[in-house]
Structure prediction request, 110 residues.
Amino acid sequence: MAEKSLDDTRTFATMVAAKQGWELNPDAEFTDSLLEGLTVNWNRYGYFLCPCRDTEGSREDDAAVVCPCTFSHADIADYGHCYCGLYLKAGFSASGKVPGGIPDRRFSKS
Ligand code: SF4
Prediction:
């Protein structure tokens, strides 16, 4: 599988945001650190494992947390941003808000 560069991952994340009607976090340094994490995970595991979560050991067990994770829509609807803070609801940053810590739904029973 071809290695991905940071720019490849940035293109991917930009396309995801455009498709979903989300925004990328405008904090360039923070966003770059997450994109770097996604890039490292792609090159290590072969899929975009969420940069804020640990692998459970296989693609099957990580399926819910391959970016954009299955929780991103609910988190963005409820909190205005995904768990990592990479993707934001449209208008979130324009309103002056910044992403904060939110619960991880991955192992949540509710
Ligand atoms: S929380 Fe979800 S959408 Fe956000 S970076 Fe991680 S996998 Fe991607």
Summary: The chain has one domain: 6-89.
